[in-house]
């Protein structure tokens, strides 16, 4: 088996016989799926995020129109609303370039639309502080 990085792998029959094998070049669509996880801040308009992500994918010339790109709201994460943009490209070699273009457009689109991209935050609460000692 040859990886996308042109590294040859040998997989023993004992592993192949007991493993789940995913054939990404088979199935009803002779195309290659891309999954782009995207986080939006709590308080974001879910429909606005969904429409923006769909629009970005539809406007990119590397992304196939059939099957159409779609967005799934996957989880209420620890610090974000977790979405996943699902779309397809014609060739596996286009995946990296397509993801780069999509992420750039998503970042710019979120900034333009005022949608916050969250990051892990921590609040520190100090229950009690020792009294301040002043020199005499």
From TrEMBL:
Transmembrane segments: none annotated. GO terms for cellular component: membrane. It comes from the Bacteria. Residues 34-117 form the Mechanosensitive ion channel MscS C-terminal domain. It holds the Pfam family MS_channel_3rd. PANTHER family: MECHANOSENSITIVE CHANNEL MSCK, POTASSIUM CHANNEL RELATED. This is Mechanosensitive ion channel.
